[in-house]
Amino acid sequence: MSHTAHIRSHRKPRRSASTIAMRAGVAGGVLSTLAVAGASGSANAAEPVTQTLELPTLTADLAAQVAQSADVTQQAAASYELQAERDAAAAKAAKQAKADLAEAKKKAAEEKKKAEEAERKAAAERASRAAERATLSASVDTGSSVGSDSSGSGSSSVGSSSSSSATGSAAAVIAFVEAQVGDAYVTGGTGPNSWDCSGLVQAAFKQVNIDLPRVSQSQSTAGTQVGLDNLQPGDILYWGGAGSAYHVGVYVGDGMFVGAQNSSTGVVKASLDYDPPSGAVRVL
């Protein structure tokens, strides 16, 4: 024992167990409260950081990515659509080109067929003209004619007063038209190897410096009207009415005429009964 223990004022007061326990409880409670508050404060401090810093950043990036992805998707769709249109146009062009080629081949085949047919027809016409010339030559050689007075009774018919011997301008006109026998008939033809009826007559009279109108209607009134029973070599024969004739030829004597008849016969020399005329005019 301390030598001062017997002195009351020097004794340390004893703390009761209850006081110590209470103080310990209070301290423990305070420490617990501080710990809970600290934990809660840490949690509360961490949550605003997550909300204000990380989440907005992630949301903005995601929106940018979505927008970028949408742009890429739209561009890809536009590219696919453009390519589809180009492919469709190319397919349509190829189809049209194929159809055009088929049509061109078809037309070429038709033209070739027409050309071959025209050549066959021309060959047939040439053969026909050759046969016609042979027939006409034989007819002339046998002295066949129209209107000869075979009975001696004095009755006459077309061309009975004509003479087979032409002179002067008439002879020149006749020589010209007879030289064209066998040439082709072509509408609007004026020679030298193809004629229509009025073109041949006009060219024949031009040999003797007589300018006739170009068409049959006008040629049928170009001279003096004469009867068919009073024909002379060199007279112009016409078919149809005077002033409205549709065909003309040249009387060459002996009941014969020369004319560019049609595309089948060409220029022929034939008897008047082969195609009897409607009238005649004389310009020589």
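the 2nd protein, sequnce then structure:
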Amino acid sequence: MTHQEISYYRLAAQKLLETNSNSPQEIVHHLGAMQAQDYSMAKWAIGSRCNATEKEIEEAIDAAKIIRTHILRPTWHFVSAEDIYWMLDISGPQVQKMTISAAKKYGYDVQKLNQINAAIEKLLSGNNHLTREEIMQELNIKKSSGQDFLAAAIMMHAELEGLVCNGKMKGKQITYALLEERVSKPKTKLNKEEGLARLAKRYFESHGPATLLDFSWWSGFSPTICKQIINAIGLQLNSVAIENQTYWFGNQINKENNFKESIHFLPAFDEILISYKSREASILLEHQSRAFTNNGIFKPIILENSKVIGTWKRTMKKDHAKIETEFFNETESHKKAILFEGIKAFGNYLETKIVIE
């Protein structure tokens, strides 16, 4: 297997290679957790992997088939309802260390955070969905630049405790609701070893071929812990060594598949880049600064045959979406026409006309 093949197989593993009939929640379940701090773009991350429209994805989120919460790393993720509890059990405690540390800067220790959780539970009880600002008003935490960070830490702590998750959208505003009122708790519970094994298997099956350090970055667990997990489930995975680096992947990859031409306009923070510690398989080192910054801001990307060749942005108008592109290298006009065929799926997803400028 070559580095070129790695990027191709990742497309297949991430369900980007062929149009499929999976539902939005099935896509999220397959990938385990999908980074989702940019809500609009995160919905397209799901839509680019299935035939669902933006409206259908929003319906799945409002119906709590897909949960948006903080998990794995201290950022937003989409997680399927069937995965939310066991994933919180294993990853919540490690992320909480960061949120508790942040809250302490404002004089809020664990005891005070737990008292606030009790107040939040009363506020949201009975399927009462409130925005963060509404919750802070009820808690008498005044809005200011500093207090905004405190509010984020308070709500993240409540999420990681399994108390709250996203509620139904209130217009264009995101709300919070009680998790147990949206998703019933499972009758059985995984222990930590079982949960970590399930997380690793899910990652390598949906993101592989990938390395130990890739999994460590994505999961938020240390390389030492990740090595122990991989050793425990190694017989359930395939592996290949390239330049003294071991890449792990699931058994579902068909190495006999012929490569085929593909064009993808993918969203900012898409799993195809952000879920790997090393991204050289998909984007040349000299182009990386044009696709993402050192402080973790990722742009929407254009992939040709599994390689990032440029970036794009969309501006929503009344009756169309305006698309602007920036290619890393000079692109011939006739080739651009072929590339722009790849944006048609985005128009179908938005159910609107696409205008390329």
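The two ends are 39 Å apart (CA to CA). The chain has 16 helices and 13 strands.
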